[in-house]
TrEMBL record:
Pfam family, one: ALF
Low complexity: compositionally biased ranges: 271-291
Keywords: Membrane, Signal, Transmembrane, Transmembrane helix
Signal peptide: 1-27
Stored InterPro entries: DUF312_ALF (IPR005506)
Membrane-spanning residues: 316-338
Biased composition (Basic and acidic residues): 235-269
Highest taxon in the source lineage: Bacteria
Protein name from the UniProt record: Gram-positive cocci surface proteins LPxTG domain-containing protein
Chain intervals for the UniProt region annotation (Disordered): 235-292
Amino acid sequence: MKFTRISALVASAAIAPAVLLASPAFAADVKAPTVSAPDAGAKTAEEQAVADREEILRLMAADGAGSVIKERGTQAIDAGPAAMRKFLEEGQYKARFEDDRVRVAQIASVGGRSVRQAARKALNVGTPEAIKEFLEVGQFKARFDDYRVETLQIMYKGGVSVKEAGSEALNANTLDALEQFIKVGQFKARNIDNRVAVTSLINDGGPKVKAAGIKALRGTPEDVQAFLDKGQFEARKQDEADAAAAKDKEKDKDSGKKDEGKGKPEPEASKGTATGTDKGTGTVTTDAGAKPVTAVDANAQATGGSSLASTGAGSALPWAAGGTAVALAGGAGLLVAARRRRA
């Protein structure tokens, strides 16, 4: 009996591993051997060439891409995959450095004194780091100094409004504030000053200056500036010419009045007057002029009446004529008496 039990136990022990390995639960815990697959990140030569070409085109189309990087990028694409790979690994940096040097020279050509000095210094150093430092930092520091100097110069030549706007920009002490004043603010302030100047000229000017100034104020800032630069002087010349012509006309008018007074005939009351003398003679002024009048004529005028009326003589004339007649009678008597004495 003992041997039978022992043999059964041994048989069970021998069969147990095979039964367990064949069960589903154990099979689930055992890992099957894996087969290695190709690396998902690896690219074929054709895929790599397509990716390099797209990257080069992106660099060429980027903002600020210079002519050198565009030219050499095109050459690399035309040359093939190897040239494109070399351009991306080395050539793009050399091309960008040459483009940056060109940009530095261009900035210096339009910049102020400080910008030109900083650009010259970077170019003399000649390293990519020096060029990059100027483009990213140095040019803006130098431009700030140039803008301050330019703002002060504009304020010195400008009017009240320009000076006020320039002071505000300087007090802000930023590159943007100074640039805004130089590119925009100074022109707005100058237009205000110009309009004030035109208004003053209108108040003090003549008719032509007033008309031209009002027309300029109704126009554009350019019209106002043109009036101050040229128009006011042309209008003032016209006003001066008109004033001189009016003065000459008034002078000629006064001269004509004087000439008219000299040629005016004597009043009618002065015609036909006679003046007597102690000798019984006088003058009578008629339309034909003055002529001598004898005592006989006077007597005839006293007796005839018609001649007296034609001369327009006054009541004193008959008395003069009577006196003359008495004198003549007395003279005749004396002459007769003298002749009798002689006889």
